[in-house]
Target: Phytanoyl-CoA dioxygenase, peroxisomal
Amino acid sequence: MLVCVRTCVRACVCVLPSAPLTYGQQTFLLLYLSSVFTGSYTGLLPDRNMSRAADRLRLLINHLDPSPASIVSFIPYTFETDLLTPEQRVFYEENGFLLIKNLVSEEDIDRFRKAFERICRQEVKVPGLVVMRDVAIAKSEFVPDQKAVSKLQDFQEDPELFRYCSLPQILKYVECFTGPNIMAMHTMLINKPPDAGKKTSRHPMHQDLHYFPFRPADRIVCSWTAMEKVTRQNGCLVVLPGTHQGTLQEHDYPEWEGGVNKMYHGVRGYDPQQPRVHLEMEKGDTVFFHPLLIHGSGMNQTQGFRKAISCHYASGDCYYIDVKGTTQENIENEALDIAVRKYGVEGDVHFKDVWMIRGRLVQGERLSL
Ligand SMILES: CCCC(=O)SCCNC(=O)CCNC(=O)[C@H](O)C(C)(C)COP(=O)(O)OP(=O)(O)OC[C@H]1O[C@@H](n2cnc3c(N)ncnc32)[C@H](O)[C@@H]1OP(=O)(O)O
Ligand SMILES: Nc1ncnc2c1ncn2[C@@H]1O[C@H](COP(=O)(O)OP(=O)(O)OP(=O)(O)O)[C@@H](O)[C@H]1O
Ligand SMILES: O=C(O)CCC(=O)C(=O)O
Ligand SMILES: [Fe+2]
Ligand SMILES: [Mg+2]
Model:
């Protein structure tokens, strides 16, 4: 420990005074270095964080190159803007998510809820919208009504719901992860139903990147806003902190006796013993998270429908990749099957096309997406 602290102090002394760093970068580095060795900034998995951060620190010290470029590679997941505090940046860098309290107003959320209800009552028809029902209901004789809707997907053509994706206070945070050119790529309103007794309301642990044929992953971020109080009881988000630093894993349908919803893939070989964090949130609280962060949600053990609204954003200069021959090929095939049925298109549809159609520019310039 003594050696570590000495190294840390030496690194600070060597790096900071001579470096052409901004005040924000200096604060960040100092905070990072000191917190790494005390584990003070987070109660989460201090051991793992410490060894990982120590590795990165050793790298930095070996180079002792205090140029802004080396700092950027040291801080790969966020951009410096005036918004995030150094503590918040460190937290996202290390954990892969950042929870901001009270970011969306009650009034806005109530408007989204009304728009959702109008869609459920079939008073409006929204082009491209996918209305999902829970598999426990979809596969039964149950007569569907509005309560049978478990998720809306692709609401980009609904002006009221899509307003969520353009909220200035959300975009200010998004910009810290994507940079200034921002595309809204994927939109959802999740209405997690009371569990019908078969645990089908669960969402298996997964990485959202599995669904996306674009990169780089670090320039993609999800914003997920609680539309009411979410708790472990009604199936809040569950995350595995730090997993955004890993790679994309193989995904498949989990072997669940009660059935699994269409396209709800989970990471293969998920170890339920891994330390996880339940993100309990109040109405309007918003979590931003990295597309490699392993997350899911537990079953809804209440009688209410747990609501959340979310959008996946990507930098305008992300680029499409071909997922043929990769672990994503299984989801590509499923998505193309559904697209062919939904749009009635034949022949040469590519995964990329499905995403190009959904993507909407919300800030700056549309470049390669
Ligand atoms: C970061 C991204 C993370 C994610 O995106 S995770 C979730 C991804 N989910 C999706 O992309 C949406 C997938 N779902 C859909 O596209 C549609 O709901 C789906 C499954 C095509 C069904 O839509 P429709 O055809 O309009 O519905 P339908 O009532 O006529 O049913 C047709 C057949 O599908 C079945 N079905 C409907 N909802 C289901 C469900 N939730 N899970 C499993 N199967 C389901 C339904 O039983 C019916 O089957 P069958 O033809 O009777 O054998
Ligand atoms: N085999 C599996 N593969 C992928 N994900 C899984 C698997 N088993 C459980 N999960 C996911 O793990 C998360 C937590 O599941 P679970 O409902 O068992 O626990 P919980 O809600 O965290 O805790 P509790 O039910 O004890 O309050 C959920 O996202 C669930 O869908
Ligand atoms: O709201 C939830 O339960 C999480 C949904 C989710 O992670 C997803 O659809 O990708
Ligand atoms: Fe997800
Ligand atoms: Mg549970």
About this structure: DSSP finds eleven helices and 16 strands in the chain. The chain has two domains: 2-75, 98-363.
